[in-house]
Amino acid sequence: MSDRLPPLTALRAFEAAARHLSFQDAAAELSVTPAALSFQIKSLETHLGAPLFHRLNRRVELTEAGQALTAPASEGFQTLAAGWRAAKRTLDSGLLTITAGPAFTAKWLAPRLFDFAQRHPEIELRFAATLKMLDFATDDIDIAIRFGPGDEGRDAGLHLALTIEEWVTPMMHPDLAAHYPTPASLTEAPIIFDDSHAFLRNSVGWEDWFRACGVAADDLHGPRFSQADHAIDAAQSGAGVVLGRVSLAESALRHGQLVAPYDVALVPRAGFRVLCPEGAQTRPGTRAFLDWLAVEVRRMDDHRAGRRMIDAGALEA
Predict the structure, then answer these.
(1) Mean pLDDT, residues 44-62 taken together
(2) Where is the HTH lysR-type domain (predicted)?
(3) Burial code of 155-171, b = ≥16 C-beta within 10 A, e = fewer?
């Protein structure tokens, strides 16, 4: 039996019919007549020397040979489609698609986009704000900003363009600061909980921060938010004190809408990784965004002045 591959059009007809288990629906998807699709599948069966479908009265079923071909054919066309999209992206330096979490997109990226747009009017940015781990090939992503402890397996084949160190410290509306001059006095304050990073093993919380300050705080209560930006918004409104992430609160701190009056800050076991496919970092649009991002990240260092940065991992010792 020859291993020579059959025509691609015949394989495409088979893949659609196998997915729908209907010649009519497959023909509609491919914009051909059912007769034309049936001819392509018959030619494929002739090439194979065996039927791929059982033709019943009003439906079709896959034969054993058809079942063996279905998954590889589907995966093959998905790979081809991803490769085609990747090839097109190399030619389109004017469009850049970035994925990041909803909170980081809203609180860090969005307030800065006007500056980037002014500097690079030739680049159109698109954002996929999601906590889902999007795939560079199948989801048409150019740059991913991911939060976590790092994953060598998932990051394999990707270029680590930049890391953004995260740190947390209590943050509150300026009007509250005078009422809570010390970490110990903060045990009497209305506490806001940010549970957005609870999915991380050994995540950092209020108990860790008070322990770093040498303050006993065993019975803390307050509203809990599953989204970090919502917790920041609540603190900004004066509702209480949040153990805020500098990345998300940076704009509010810079504009005086929040203050972080204590010198103790914790560096959690997770941070941001800015990733792109290996080799893509040299493309003009990607390079422009990465260079701009690095400058903006360095500006956050202003908020570190005078603080004691404590590695959260050291608290476990």
Answers:
(1) 92
(2) 6-63
(3) eeebbebbebebbbbbb
